[in-house]
Structure formats: structure tokens, C-alpha cells
Amino acid sequence: MEMTLPRPRMLPRRRPGSLTIARAARGRYAPRDAIVDHLAEEAVVSLARERPSAEEFLRRIRRELKIRFYQASTQRNYRRVLEVFLRWLARPPHAATREDVREFLELLVDGGASSSWVAGHLSALRTTFDKMCGQALTPCRLRQKSLRQPPRRRPLLLAGHPGRLCRQRSGRRP
């Protein structure tokens, strides 16, 4: 009695004389409709159209942070930063400008705040105004370079040729 093994699953077979695949792809290779996020185009608080008070602005931002699953400590820190910024601004949130943010950050630096403290304030302002309100209020240069760490230096080879060092590490002798 001859035993036949089950045939392993292979690529879909082609119909004879045709270049099309006999069955449609399934699983992760199946064609899918594009994901469209309709809410990404809308700002949570459109400061260009709306004129919310500071209290209403903070309430809506707090709600959005909760919906986006920000940690409780992050929500608390962002709320405190926004309260301090709006109290310093002494105007409604829609009146804030990029220069106001720069002056606020400069005030923190002049007051002796550490770089991590200023970075935390900048992150809260960037998340709130840039991401959730659709306004580009944070300074561009700060967003790109100044808060990053400088690149690490490579170690200098102090003794001789690098090939010699590699041979010494591998145990071979010249």
C-alpha cells in the first residue's frame, strides 16, 4: 500500500495558458481599502474658527488627551503647562502667536529652568497647538535641532593600524 503525503501549500496555481492567478490573495496579502482618518483633517479645537475661553480650551484639550490614552501624569503635566502659559499670556488661546511661545520659552530659560524642563513645556505646547489645534506655533528651529543630543564621538584608535588591531582580537598573529 502506497502512502501519499499531503501536498504542502504553495503559491496559488495559475490557470493553464493564462497569466492570472486562479484565486484572489488572502490573509495579509489580500488587497485592502485605504484607511482614511476623517478626524485627522479636523482640529480638536479650531482656533481659526472658534474663540474658546481659557477654561473651555483646557477642558477640551484635557478630554482629547484622555481619549488619546495619554498617561495620567502626562495629562496633569500638560494641563499645568497650559495653565501657566495661558496665565502668562493674559489673552485668550486663539490670540497666541509663535512669538508669544518663543518669549515664554525664553522667560523659562532666563529664569534658570533646565533643558528638560523647557523641553517638557515645549512638548506640551507643541502637542496642544500644533497637533490638536492645527496651528504651527512652536518655533521651527527648536522643533528640529536644539533639543537633540549632540552626536557621540567615535573612539580614536590610539595604537597603530586598524587591521593590526583586528588581527590581534581574532587571535591570529602576524
How would you describe this protein?
The chain is mostly helical and 174 residues long. The chain has a domain of 86 residues: Orthogonal Bundle (DNA polymerase, domain 1), CATH 1.10.150.130. It is 45% helix and 0% strand. The chain is built from 6 helices and no strands. The longest helix has 18 residues. It starts with 53 loop residues before the first helix and ends with a helix. The relative contact order is 0.09. About 3% of the residues have low confidence.
What is the secondary structure topology, with strand pairs?
Blueprint (H helix, E strand, L loop, with lengths): L53 H14 L4 H18 L8 H13 L4 H18 L7 H7 L15 H9 L4
Helix pairs in contact: 1-2, 2-4, 3-4
Fill in the keyword field for this structure:
174 residues, mainly alpha, DNA polymerase, domain 1, elongated
CATH domain class of the domain at 54-139: Mainly Alpha
Rounded to an integer in angstroms, the radius of gyration calculated over CA atoms is 29 Å
Number of helices: 6
Helix content: 40-55%
Oligomer: single chain
Number of strands: 0
CATH topology of the domain at 54-139: DNA polymerase, domain 1
Q: Tell me the distance between the termini.
A: 65 Å
The ordered string of helix (H) and strand (E) elements is HHHHHH
The CATH homologous superfamily of the domain at 54-139 is termed Tyrosine recombinase, N-terminal domain
Shape: elongated
Q: What fraction strand?
A: under 5%
CATH architecture of the domain at 54-139: Orthogonal Bundle
Task: State the major sheet.
Answer: none
Poorly predicted regions: 142-146
Q: What's the rounded overall pLDDT mean?
A: 78
Pairing-aware structural class of the strands and helices? mainly alpha
